[in-house]
Each structure stands twice: as structure tokens, then as C-alpha cells.
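Late entry, written up from scratch paper. The run itself happened at the end of the previous shift, but nothing got recorded in the book at the time, so transcribing now.
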Amino acid sequence: MTVKSENSGVDARTRPVPGGWVLVRLMGPALTIVAVLFGGGLTLGLLQSLGHLPAAGAGVLTVKHFVAILGDPDFLHSLLLTLYIAATSTVVAAGISVVMALILIGLAPRNRVVHFIFQIPLTVPHLVIAAAVAFMLSPTGLCSRVVLKLGLISSSADFPLLINDRWGIGIMLAYVWKEIPFITLMILAVLRHTGMELLEVGQTLKAGRWQRLRYIILPTIFPSLAAASLIVFAYTFGAFEVPFLLGQTYPMMLPVWAYKNYSDVDLLARPEGIATGMLIALVVAIAIVLAQGLSQAARRRGIVL
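Output as recorded:
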């Protein structure tokens, strides 16, 4: 049945979408609030990172704080550690998510309970996940007690150090645990809207299992997988609470390093902490722009993310 507009008699489904300026006017109030709150904070942070700190008697704008942190060995160590943890946890989560998506797509819609359970971690804050990892993997945690009870180790000191360790294993486990459901659901959305039809075509053409994986599934899910992975990388690169709880004291990840300088009793150290935060924001912004570009490319190919 065709739905008509009461005033114009035009098919509602063919009604033209409002133009760019119309959308800007409609979204004006919300955009103004976002621009004032986010843009104002970003501008204030940029000014302080450039040395504008009247409370400490500094008002001359300079880039010396950026030069100082870029030449600081502690900053470089923290940067390498942050890149390593963010990239490793993202790659591991993405790889597991592809496998989980292929398993879950075979269960739908027969087992909705599995899908519901799989979505629960999405509602759990990262802080709760970090606390759970600490309780399970610390030398006196749940896993250590179970292994000790089984007689596999003689004391809690023999349990491997997985929290506050130099390799960031506890941090990566927390991120992988939290981000697998997000990436998996992104892949599932693509497989349900586009991939199943292509898989049926591949089966009709007698394509084998590995051929369908290589030539159908992976090219189909790549835009959504890459976009979701970039979002996860951006978050893990700039997150504070998980490395603060589970990371070591040196070298520390960049967000913790920035907080350490910002909260220093010496106000003159604050611009370096804010400058570090601005560099983190730059990396995150680049990752988000890349993810948005991949999403738009996927839409042009007819892939729904």
C-alpha cells in the first residue's frame, strides 16, 4: 500500500531528503552544545599545552613543551609501549572476532541465548573488566588459587606475573575481553545483510570452504573489520583507567604518563601533560578519520555496517 502525504499527496517513501543547510539548521542546537563543550575544552587544552598558564605566571605561547616531551626518553618509551599494547590487543581481538562471527552466523537465528550472552560485555564498563582481570590474574587471585589447589605450583609466588608486568599482558587481556563482542557484532551485521547472499552464490558455483572464506567472506567483512579495529585501536591508545590499574609504574602508557605530569605538584609540569594529551588526541582523531573513510567506502560498495 502506498502511503501519501496528507498535504502534498507525494509518496512518503520518495520524499526528498533535506539538503545540507537544512540538516545543519535542524542539528544547530545540538551542534552548538557539542562545539562549545568539546571545542572549548580542546582550545583551552591547546592553549595550556602551548604554555598559557596564568596561575603559574606563564602566559607566553611557545612550543617548547611539545619539543621537551618529544625529546624525553620516558615519553618515547611510553609511546612505544602504548603502540605495542594498542596494536597487539587490536590484532588479537580482530582475529578472534572473525572466528566468533563465523561461528555465531551459523547459530542464528536458532540460538538467541548465545547472542544475548555474547552482548553482555558491551554493557560492562572497562573499569569493571580491569578489576575482574586483576582479581583473576593477580598472584593471589582466583586463577592462582585454582592452580595452587591443583598442585601445579607450590606457592602463589610461582604463578606467572600477568598484572603490572612489563609486557602489558593484563592490559591486553582486559582490552581483548572487552572489544571482541564489539568487533564481532560489526562483522555479524555485514554478514547478515550482504555476506549470506554471496555465500549462497558461492555454494551454487561449487566454491569450497576456503575459497568462500578467501574470495567472499574476507573481502566482504574487510571494511567493517578494519573500521572497527581502528576504533578499538583509537580507544585503547587513549584509554586511562585500564593501564592505570593493570600497568607497571615504568614505563607507563601515554595516558597514565600524561596524567602523572598533569597532576604534578609543580604547575609548570602541567603543560607537558596536556601536550601529551593533545598528541594522544591527534592519533585518535587520525584513527577515527580513517575508520570513517572505510565506512563510507563500504557504503559505496553497498555494504551495510
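The CA atoms of residues 264 and 270 lie 7 Å apart.
(Scratch paper discarded after transcription.)
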